[in-house]
């Protein structure tokens, strides 16, 4: 036996103990079956006997992360461009290059949506562990709800991977001293280990041994806990385990802290990162606050180099390898033979699918430099069309308003070939209201909707807006300021400007609406077809509703939900728009006083 092999074996079986305490004999978890290791240990990095540390990976997409949870609700995950395969494939190739096997913590939702990807990870020799079904903090769940979530996640992960699921990491908010009841539940549910504790600052100061791998006793059962590794700084514990801390803290400083751990402690260094951290080209969620964008995006391009540095210096294994537990479930079907998990697939709407009684409706989508939004928009509109197919036959009219990015190419490639879509290109930028009027003129139906390309008003709300365009009604407009409407995450200064403008328009116009500036509307085409607007840009949206009002039309307000723009950036020029509203108010007031119709 070579010295390197002897070193690997000794580290696989070395007891885990907190420094300063007597080393106890290692006790095998109840029910564990011993077979050969899941994969060969990585070659020794130097002549000296290196310890075997633990490598864990969060398999998740960029829009799953806790930094964006206030902006992106899990109910909308299916609309985002999925890039989880990109980061996961890069992760697998990197680990193969260094001969390392890791523990992948996976959401049950991800296992149901991309089971073939989870199977690929398992087939490459890595351990699959649970992160719950959807990302919850334990303070959101009762013990009963926690058990239900564990069961649902385990079922999905076993179905996708063919492995026993023996480990868990919480989806959001690391465990505090008040959350240790969860370890009792995990032990009762048959989990052999958890890795959800991140000692931070003074957390667990009264139990310093919880900084290191230890056993948690839960009545007659026990469960291993593998906390994320930390450094001591002036009596405080600071995380150095990886992920965001690798990208935010000075690399040299973290290097020295990890080397100190390797020299000083018997317990393994528990490192982690996320698959999305190896995808620096992921879409930027611009709606997040600045500090969250820094947290999520800073140094993504350097992450692979940092990981290579640690993979070259140290030797890692999965937690299942550390515990010497076989994870392949002999009672589960082989992954390749398993039927795919049931996934709701939403196909593009087709004019032939709705029933004969479905009412034809056109939906105008003005687009100007929206390449970042279009993949999200495509999935959203397909969901909308499928949801209303029994009542309405939707036809989308995209108006590219002289975009200078890849918007035109994406529209021509993605939407133009579809029978339920028409794509029109303005030779230059004419403004959003001009684009909407172009779409209305090109529409073939009397009911025409206009929506925001960025989906700040969820197009699913059309299902409730269209029925309001009854006989005698000329226009239905969305109003987040309606008593039954709402606003989510929109900056207060923007709300203040919009509300103030609406207050002035209520004085000038006949209809006393709560909102006059929304692009999200349902029109009777015959009412607006002949209108000529002096304002082609954002002001034209208000001018249009003002002309319908002063021409004697009937306007109905719909209480809508307005959300902050998630992808891309707003094109509105704030100062120009403010002065423009003052001029428009003056013209509309003059028009009402003189009785002139346009």
Which CATH C-level class of the largest domain is it? Answer: Alpha Beta
Number of structural units classed as domains: 2
Which strand order do you get reading across the main beta sheet? 14-13-12-15-18-16-19
CATH architectural designation of the largest domain:
Alpha-Beta Barrel
CATH H level of the largest domain: which superfamily? Answer: Glycoside hydrolase/deacetylase
What's the gyration radius in Å?
A: 29 Å
Q: Low-confidence parts lasting 5 or more residues at pLDDT below 50? A: 1-49, 333-352
Outline type: elongated
Q: What's the pLDDT, averaged over the residues?
A: 85
Total strands: the figure is 20
- Overall SS class: alpha/beta
Oligomer: single chain
Structural overview:
There is one protein chain. Helix 4 packs across helix 5, helix 16 packs parallel to helix 19 and helix 18 runs parallel beside helix 19. It is elongated and about 85 Å long. With 598 residues, the protein is of the alpha/beta class. The N terminus is likely disordered. It folds into two domains: 278 residues, Glycoside hydrolase/deacetylase (TIM Barrel); 236 residues, Alpha-Beta Complex (Spore Coat Polysaccharide Biosynthesis Protein SpsA, Chain A). A seven-stranded mixed beta sheet has the order 14-13-12-15-18-16-19.
Quick take:
The chain is of the alpha/beta class. The chain has helices at residues 3-13, 84-98, 108-113, 115-123, 143-161, 181-188, 244-248, 251-264, 290-297, 303-313, 319-323, 374-387, 407-414, 432-442, 462-465, 492-508, 525-528, 538-550, 574-594; strands at residues 52-59, 103-106, 127-130, 167-168, 193-194, 214-218, 221-225, 230-233, 236-239, 270-274, 315-317, 359-367, 392-401, 421-426, 447-450, 475-479, 486-488, 521-524, 555-559, 561-563.
